[in-house]
Amino acid sequence: MKVDGTPFRSIWLNEDGWSVDIIDQTRLPHEFKVERLTTLDQAAHAIKAMLVRGAPLIGATAAYGVCLGLREEASDAALRKIGDILIATRPTAVNLRWAIRAMQDLLLPLPESERVAAAYEKAAQICDEDVAINSAIGDHGLGVIEAIWEKKGKTGVVNILTHCNAGWLATVDWGTALSPIYKAHNKGIPVHVWVDETRPRNQGAHLTCWELGKHGVDHTLVVDNVGGHLMQHGQVDLCITGTDRTTAAGDVCNKIGTYLKALAAKDNNVPFYVALPGPTIDWEIDDGVKDIPIEIRDSHEVDFIQGKDSAGQVSEVRILPEESSSANYAFDVTPARLVTGLITERGVADASKEGLARLYDRLEYKAS
Hints:
It holds the Pfam family IF-2B. GO terms for molecular function: S-methyl-5-thioribose-1-phosphate isomerase activity. The chain is of the alpha/beta class. Helices cover 39% and strands 19% of the residues. The protein has twelve helices and 18 strands. Helix 1 packs antiparallel against helix 2 (55-72), helix 2 (55-72) packs parallel to helix 4 and helix 5 (112-151) packs across helix 6.
């Protein structure tokens, strides 16, 4: 995608051929800053502190984290320790574990002297495959949007509600939930996106609005609890969200608040789609509510809010009383029964074991 006319991915190899450049997403939308990663610890920090976020991008960053770690030591013990360090950074997104396993499966059989070069080649492959996967998700999701546009007699606009950021900033490029929107916009279909602010980190306000604005897509920011109201009044034609982990039975785990949007969509007969790449499917679990670990993040993210003040300075302010406490559950699980369909790189599947089995062999992305 482009930023002010310049093409960017969310992660890329520096021109020195070994260090890794990322966009520091904690500084958006007020500052566009490229951060250079040169060590395993820096890669782990980038994931944990959410300089990078979004399941596919976390996986890609972890792959390059392995590369950086191996530059210090390439033994079997070091490779396993590197994996343990990176996996511990974020517990919910399955792509992280999948990427580490893919790297280890390739590298452990190789002589130590060959591991660094092979690791960089594999990390680049993971990134390129992610771009291709997300572009294909966009193509299949475009069909969903086109069908709604035709049903409306190709008049007015197609109103889409999304939650959190599942655009190119959450992947290597294109995005998952936003990829169909970009494809529709590029094809000339008039789309308008209702963007949930997505408290407490405000990824919708900070990142999705920034992305859509840079690409020229019409959008409106709303607070998280407006979605149901919009659906009741016929102002949402469909919902599309991303997911950090999808079970073999079609349950989806996404940013906290997604479940409530799915309930509102069900009550108002609004189609609720989830866009995901194959590596996001966790084939080892069926019951998402019971078995997906939900990350509980630092309460500071709830207690304080960041923004730009009247003097143009980026700062944060506390929004609750000093004596009050808060809890910060980062994700929730939407049961498959509430999901209209799963938009994947291989087509649109029913949110069920049978639907996913028609598109995937469950051993393809085995992550344990």
